[in-house]
């Protein structure tokens, strides 16, 4: 009898244990693979704030109970601006960490390599910083999304600014990094600019490697040319080092200089009011000093605090927006099933720090806006910034869905 009672109690205990609801700590987290340039002087000016923006969004959502009752967890990896390293990290995040989706990166070469692997593995890859239009254009696929601008909108906005501020200039000098992003930027800029200024042509080109240390010969060549202006797609640490050298030559007093990354706060926030690209035309994905909404007003101080002094531009803002876009898509789908998340993301409109953003179904490209203005200083802000800003219509800056379809057909 005692043995029978003992066995009964054991069975009762096991049955109760099996039907007990899982405690909060036992709930399986939704894992996010975060890939970015988190070290080195070029890419980390984007990677560090981008990771900060993602972390802030995750903390906010987890505080509210997570998504579908599950907490979010970020697993961050450094791609070191290398496609080979990036793919190795992506492979580990997918196969070993079992992430539910991946996001990040500033290098277009890394983004394209990661996109190919994620498509093969059928895992969602959301680009937050990398800009080559090919990522969601000719090389796009079902599993790749971008919540940021791309080179077609990025460069057409600068082309619009040049035509507005410096009318009818036709001789263009090209300066850009010698890889996918730089060459795609040239193609997209000239495509847009020649529509605005017929007869415009390239009269010189220079293609330094990423992380170039000596800009003297490049600056001399440009200043000795007969170009009307320079279109420059340098970015990150290269903008900082070029500006420092160029100021010693009085370059910005003598040369009309423009480029999309030259207005980004990630680099301007590291400059002083005495050494900066005065008068250059640049752009901004997130001129928070011009935006007044609750999301933006809370976000930029939070990222500044998280990074101990860095201000958010495309980096941080787009990663923050990406987490919330994924939240809305998952809640719409009711699951973290990849195929159902993709269906929910296609055509999704969500609230971002810059206002409502829609992700196009045809190419998975978010219609993110891009402000353009002249770089100067003021008493209102402690660092150089775009002034007299204009906001070109993003719908006119991105490729049409028909153009994307044609590019993908050619790519295949």
Please provide a written account of the structure.
The protein is α/β, with parallel strands linked by helices and 412 residues long. 44% of the residues lie in helices and 16% in strands. Strands 2-1-3-4-5 form a 5-stranded parallel sheet, with helices on both faces. The N and C termini lie far apart (76 Å). The model is unreliable at 1-24 (pLDDT under 50).
What is shown here, in short?
The chain is α/β, with parallel strands linked by helices and 412 residues long.
Number of helical regions: 15
Shape: globular
CATH topology term of the largest domain: Rossmann fold
- H/E element string? HEHEHEHEEHEHEHEHHEHEHHHEEEEHH
The total count of strands amounts to 14
Mean pLDDT over the residues: 92
Query: Share of helix among residues?
Result: 40-55%
Tell me the name of the CATH class of the largest domain.
Alpha Beta
Structural topology:
Blueprint: H1 2-19, E1 30-36, H2 44-63, E2 72-78, H3 83-95, E3 101-104, H4 108-121, E4 125-127, E5 144-146, H5 151-165, E6 171-175, H6 180-196, E7 201-206, H7 216-223, E8 229-232, H8 237-248, H9 251-254, E9 257-258, H10 265-268, E10 281-284, H11 294-306, H12 314-333, H13 338-345, E11 349-352, E12 355-358, E13 371-376, E14 385-390, H14 394-397, H15 401-411
Parallel strand pairs: 1-2, 1-3, 3-4, 4-5, 6-7, 6-8, 8-9
Antiparallel strand pairs: 10-13, 11-12, 13-14
Give a quick set of tags describing it:
412 residues; alpha/beta; Rossmann fold; five-stranded parallel sheet; four-stranded parallel sheet; 14 strands; disordered N terminus
């Amino acid at each position: 009898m005692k043995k029978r009672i003992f066995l009964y109690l054991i069975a009762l205990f096991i049955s109760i244990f099996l039907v007990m609801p899982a405690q909060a700590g036992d709930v399986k987290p939704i894992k996010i693979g975060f890939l970015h340039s988190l070290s080195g002087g070029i890419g980390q000016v984007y990677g560090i704030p981008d990771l900060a923006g993602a972390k802030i969004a995750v903390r906010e959502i987890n505080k509210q109970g997570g998504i579908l009752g599950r907490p979010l967890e970020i697993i961050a990896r450094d791609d070191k601006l290398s496609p080979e390293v990036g793919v190795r990290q992506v492979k580990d995040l997918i196969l070993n960490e079992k992430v539910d989706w991946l996001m990040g990166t500033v290098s277009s070469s890394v983004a394209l390599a990661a996109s190919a692997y994620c498509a093969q593995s059928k895992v969602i890859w959301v680009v937050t910083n990398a800009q080559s239009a090919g990522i969601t254009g000719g090389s796009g696929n079902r599993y790749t999304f971008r919540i940021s601008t791309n080179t077609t909108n990025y460069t057409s906005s600068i082309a619009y600014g040049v035509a507005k501020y410096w009318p009818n200039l036709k001789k263009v000098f090209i300066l850009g990094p010698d890889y996918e992003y730089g060459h795609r930027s040239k193609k997209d800029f000239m495509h847009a600019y020649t529509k605005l200024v017929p007869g415009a042509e390239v009269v010189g080109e220079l293609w330094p490697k990423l992380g170039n240390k000596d800009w003297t010969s490049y600056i001399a060549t440009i200043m000795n040319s007969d170009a009307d202006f320079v279109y420059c797609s340098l970015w990150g640490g290269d903008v900082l080092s070029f500006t420092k050298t160029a100021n010693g030559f009085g370059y910005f007093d003598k040369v009309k200089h423009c480029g999309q990354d030259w207005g980004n706060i990630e680099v301007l926030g590291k400059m002083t009011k005495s050494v900066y690209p005065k008068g250059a035309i640049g752009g901004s994905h997130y001129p928070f000093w011009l935006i007044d909404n609750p999301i933006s007003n809370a976000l930029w101080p939070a990222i500044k605090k998280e990074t101990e002094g860095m201000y958010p531009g495309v980096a941080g803002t787009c990663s923050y927006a990406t987490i919330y876009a994924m939240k809305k898509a998952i809640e719409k789908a009711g699951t973290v099933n990849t195929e159902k998340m993709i269906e929910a993301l296609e055509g999704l409109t969500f609230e971002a720090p810059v206002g409502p953003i829609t992700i196009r179904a045809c190419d998975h490209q978010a219609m993110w806006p891009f402000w353009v203005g002249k770089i100067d200083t003021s008493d209102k802000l402690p660092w150089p910034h775009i002034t007299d800003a204009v906001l070109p219509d993003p719908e006119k800056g991105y490729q049409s869905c028909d153009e994307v379809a044609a590019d993908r057909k050619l790519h295949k």
